[in-house]
């Protein structure tokens, strides 16, 4: 009897040839082929991600889409507007409690719905008792056990904190979990600094062969000064929507009222945002240097024209300044 043994030498040669091929870094321009679009939204803390996402997800659902909103911030405040200010039990907290009781976590323990939107919070460790990024990783592990990959949604929106340069918060970019990223920013240096960091992370993982791109920016509390729009133009991403700094929006948000509905005057704005989010392709951004970012603002505001004056050893010693005897041994004759 003869065995059909594969030619391992040829197999080895083929693998070596593939390893020497240059990976393509072209950005796909066609819409994602997977039915479910998984979109990660990043932005500075307090910039309005939760406000934007709660209203965006509600409008998507009102327009007939199946939407899952997942809060990936240890503050667990993504769903507060959607649920009228009521805190949503987090996956990590619920899992810990159930495990101590010898019970299994069920979907109904952690996922809730309103206006057609399904929403949940990953949560995080207690203050000072763990790593928020590691908590995010653990939360996604629990989601997989709950059957995340078998769920049927048109859109899964992930709300991520953008301030921290951390592997846990960068999970969707590093592991190609999302097809595209959206940044929320305003016309201020700190929020654009965070947006630029997100673009840098996307660019870094693209160089390593990743596929996630930045679909665009949402300008929140837009006061018309134009810095955020200028940033988006320079890094090469579109502005998906500009949400004005309007007192009506501020009051409704503070009172946990949804404005992303056709029943309000803001319905058209969030409908347009929903369409742009759905259609925008993932792009490869061109992040700015720190000086380039400062250049978008008036130098008097940022201190961009400040000249650095180097300190000296004498400055550092202060009142102890003086000639310091050397301990070096000098030999005149060798």
TrEMBL record:
CDD domains, per database record: BchX
Record GO terms (molecular function): 4 iron, 4 sulfur cluster binding; ATP binding; metal ion binding; oxidoreductase activity, acting on the CH-CH group of donors, NAD or NADP as acceptor
A Gene Ontology biological process term: bacteriochlorophyll biosynthetic process
Lineage top rank: taxon: Bacteria
Keywords: 4Fe-4S, ATP-binding, Iron, Iron-sulfur, Metal-binding, Nucleotide-binding, Oxidoreductase
Keyword presence, Transmembrane helix: no
Cofactor: [4Fe-4S] cluster
Matches recorded under Gene3D superfamilies: P-loop containing nucleotide triphosphate hydrolases
Assigned protein family: Belongs to the NifH/BchL/ChlL family.
Protein's name according to its UniProt entry: Chlorophyllide a reductase iron protein subunit X
Species this protein is from: Paragemmobacter aquarius
